[in-house]
Write a structure and sequence with these properties.
By secondary structure, the chain is of the alpha/beta class. 48% of the residues lie in helices and 16% in strands. Helix 2 runs parallel beside helix 3. The longest helix is centred in the last third of the chain and has 15 residues, at 195-209. It is globular and about 45 Å long.
Length: 210
């Protein structure tokens, strides 16, 4: 996946679903449900159980066009293994060696940053977009402040993003938002209660923003 393709997907979809769970089979079902319900950008966190296997099985089930990424990518080895499993992009919690390693093997990166210095570092390492993390630390006010010196940087706030905060962040100029438990709930642990309703609500929110 080319960086411009990821950026276009973020600009048009406005939502990245984040799946992290203790049950690999339930996590796989959750990924498939999200994508088949219209949420195209899905990040599978490597901190979840057998996450690389989840990505690989989801890629096999969904085909080459599914916009699956690997999250919580910390090292160069994480990036290589994610690519081998079928991830099309990586997501890091900070400016780690994984950013440069991902770019070296042809994967675009959402690199985590919270401060202006970290934003500059993420861009210098070749990040396609900046994952503003944790977004709960400042929310839309922080995003607006950062967009002053960085008006053309695509920011994707992640962390503590529920539906109300997602609306505020998108209105404040976020290119997209990353949403974990407020969307996925405990589906990746085996309890999918309410998932269909949450998918519909967040899809409507993203479509409204688009």
């Amino acid at each position: 996946m080319e960086p411009h393709e990821l950026l276009h997907a973020l600009q048009t979809q406005r939502l990245v679903a984040i799946v992290r769970g203790a049950d690999p089979d339930a996590a796989l079902d959750t990924v498939l449900n999200l994508v088949r319900s219209g949420i195209r950008l899905v990040e599978v966190s490597l901190s979840g159980a057998e996450a690389l296997g989840v990505i690989e099985r989801a890629r096999h089930a969904l085909g080459d066009d599914a916009l699956l990424g690997a999250g919580t990518v910390l090292t160069a080895e994480d990036a290589r293994r994610a690519a081998d499993a079928g991830a099309l992009y990586t997501v890091t919690p900070g400016v780690t060696e994984a950013v440069r390693a991902s770019r070296a093997i042809g994967l675009p990166v959402l690199a985590g940053a919270l401060t202006p210095t970290e934003v500059v570092a993420a861009l210098a390492e070749g990040a396609t977009a900046v994952k503003l993390f944790p977004a709960g630390s400042g929310g839309a006010e922080l995003l607006r402040a950062l967009r002053g010196p960085f008006p053309r940087v695509p920011f994707v706030p992640v962390g503590g993003v529920d539906d109300a905060r997602a609306r505020d962040l998108l209105a404040a100029g976020a290119v997209a938002v990353g949403v974990g438990s407020p969307l996925v709930g405990r589906a990746a642990d085996g309890d999918a209660t309410g998932l269909t309703e949450r998918i519909a609500a967040f899809r409507a929110l993203a479509e409204e923003a688009a």
